[in-house]
């Protein structure tokens, strides 16, 4: 922007009564929405770190579809109803949570801020919502569960080593984790082009330009250097040779995952070993949802990995009605990918989801403000849900249904209407 255009913009803003000072003064507590939190994280993190959180696969069209799916629905308000009090509590897998939201699993969170896993767990505990701890976390499972024993769900990937798979399940049992989540949507490492351009790979291959840009964020760089660089993946340290450093453990993890041979027999083996609630994360096809139900899975996280795996994948919200039609009330359905507003959570509920989870907003928040940032994200979404419930005349989140929805294109076909979907 030229000096002249800046002066003209200032004059127009003054005439219209627009105050831009919040853009400079904004902090975690004054952030109004989740996009503000993202802006704060972008300021604090070097590009190589921010792009790892923010980016997706290939052309990142899946990221766009995830958000566009919510825009295809409108909420039809019902007035002259008593909404002086709105209840957004939700029953998930036998437990009552204060809000129909939670924090999705995300590995390497400690790279954005040390002990980020502990901070997210504490925020989830204080808000009484679930935190899905990634097996690729930096803090150990046992350490995180100690912070929030009633709110941590443990998410694992199956590896190429069955003994390690079995041990991860046993560790979750010994730690008294309530719920086990198995992610099934990473049969191969995806093409995340932002990471490749930035040199975010094993080993790091950062170009001089990336290093120079990172130096524009000295607080993060100093903390990165002070804490020893890439943090240890504590859950995987026991499986590495004695004396292995963080880089060695990360390299070992890369040899164990992804595991493209994983199939329903592996899920059956986990189901036999795990007596508590079992959740599969990443299914998008109604037939897979039906198979999961028959195998004894208790819930699904309907997700496309936040657009980070298959760029051509459909938005989970678009698949939700067909999956709900396939399994009915036999499984709790949780929506992930693209959730950024309280209205998104309400729309997902109207289409059959019991709750929604998200990762990027929590990662932006912990990077920008630690636990206080995550607290703020959960508060913003909770407040938005309450506002939307009040606006549409619904005093109970649990009672939402499709009667509150009006699609942008009422004649649009759905997968559930296609009789061939179950055999495709």
Question: Which tags fit this structure?
Answer:
8-stranded parallel sheet; TIM Barrel; 424 residues; 11% strand; globular; 12 strands; two-stranded antiparallel ribbon; disordered C terminus; alpha/beta; single chain
Summarize, please:
The protein is an alpha/beta fold and about 425 residues long. It contains 17 helices and twelve strands.
Q: Number of helical segments?
A: 17
CATH topology: TIM Barrel
Question: What is the helix fraction of residues, given as a range?
Answer: 40-55%
Termini separation: 53 Å
Within CATH, the superfamily carries the name Aldolase class I
List segments where confidence is low: pLDDT < 50 over at least 5 consecutive residues: 1-16, 18-23, 412-424
Rg, nearest Å: 22 Å
The strand count comes to: 12
N to C succession of SSEs: HHHHHEEEEHEHEHEHHHHHEHEHEHEHE
Largest sheet: 8 strands, parallel
Global morphology: globular
Number of domains: 1
The appropriate CATH architecture is Alpha-Beta Barrel
Mean pLDDT: 91
What would you note in describing this structure?
The protein is α/β, with parallel strands linked by helices and 424 residues long. The protein has one domain (49-193, 252-409): Alpha-Beta Barrel (TIM Barrel). The protein has helices at 3-16, 21-25, 34-44, 47-54, 61-71, 116-127, 141-147, 162-174, 193-198, 208-214, 218-226, 246-256, 264-273, 286-295, 316-327, 342-350, 360-392, and strands spanning 73-75, 90-92, 95-97, 101-103, 131-134, 152-157, 180-183, 278-281, 299-302, 332-336, 355-358, 405-407. Strands 4-11-10-9-8-7-6-5 form an eight-stranded parallel β-sheet. It has a two-stranded antiparallel sheet with strand order 1-12. Helix 3 runs antiparallel to helix 17 (360-392) and helix 14 packs across helix 15 (316-327). The radius of gyration is 22 Å and the shape is globular. Residues 1-16, 18-23 and 412-424 have low confidence and may be disordered.
């Amino acid at each position: 922007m030229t000096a002249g255009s800046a002066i003209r913009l200032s004059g127009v803003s003054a005439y219209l009564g627009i105050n831009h000072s919040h853009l400079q003064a904004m902090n975690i507590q004054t952030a109004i929405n989740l996009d503000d939190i993202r802006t704060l994280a972008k300021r604090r993190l070097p590009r190589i770190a921010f792009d790892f959180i923010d980016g997706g696969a290939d052309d990142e069209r899946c990221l766009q579809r995830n958000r566009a799916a919510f825009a295809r629905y409108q909420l039809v308000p019902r007035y002259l109803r008593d909404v002086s009090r709105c209840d957004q509590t939700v029953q998930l897998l036998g437990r009552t949570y204060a809000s129909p939201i939670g924090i999705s699993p995300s590995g390497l969170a400690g790279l954005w801020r040390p002990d980020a896993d502990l901070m997210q767990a504490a925020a989830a505990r204080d808000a009484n919502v679930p935190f899905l701890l990634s097996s690729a976390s930096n803090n150990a499972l046992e350490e995180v569960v100690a912070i929030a024993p009633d709110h941590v769900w443990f998410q694992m990937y199956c590896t190429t080593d069955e003994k390690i798979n079995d041990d991860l399940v046993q560790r979750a049992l010994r730690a008294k984790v309530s719920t086990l989540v198995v992610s099934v949507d990473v049969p191969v490492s995806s093409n995340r082009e932002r990471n490749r351009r930035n040199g975010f790979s094993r080993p790091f291959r950062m170009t001089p330009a990336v290093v120079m840009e990172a130096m524009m964020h000295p607080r993060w760089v100093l903390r990165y250097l002070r804490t020893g660089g890439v943090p240890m993946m504590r859950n995987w340290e026991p499986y590495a040779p004695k004396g292995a450093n963080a880089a060695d453990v990360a390299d070992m993890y890369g040899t164990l995952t992804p595991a493209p041979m994983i199939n329903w027999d592996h899920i059956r083996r986990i189901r036999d070993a795990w007596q508590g609630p079992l959740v599969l994360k990443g299914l998008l096809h109604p037939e897979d949802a039906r198979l999961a139900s028959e195998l004894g899975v208790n819930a699904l996280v309907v997700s496309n990995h936040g657009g980070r795996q298959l760029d051509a994948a459909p938005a989970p919200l678009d698949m939700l009605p067909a999956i709900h039609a396939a399994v009915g009330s036999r499984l709790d359905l949780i929506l992930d990918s693209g959730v950024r507003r309280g209205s998104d959570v309400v729309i997902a509920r109207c289409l059959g989801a019991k709750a929604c989870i998200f990762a990027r907003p929590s990662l932006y928040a912990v990077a920008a403000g630690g636990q206080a940032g995550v607290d703020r994200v959960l508060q913003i979404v909770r407040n938005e849900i309450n506002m939307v419930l009040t606006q549409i005349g619904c005093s109970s989140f649990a009672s939402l249904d499709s009667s509150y929805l009006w699609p942008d294109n009422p004649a649009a076909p759905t997968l559930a209407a296609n009789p061939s979907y179950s055999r495709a």
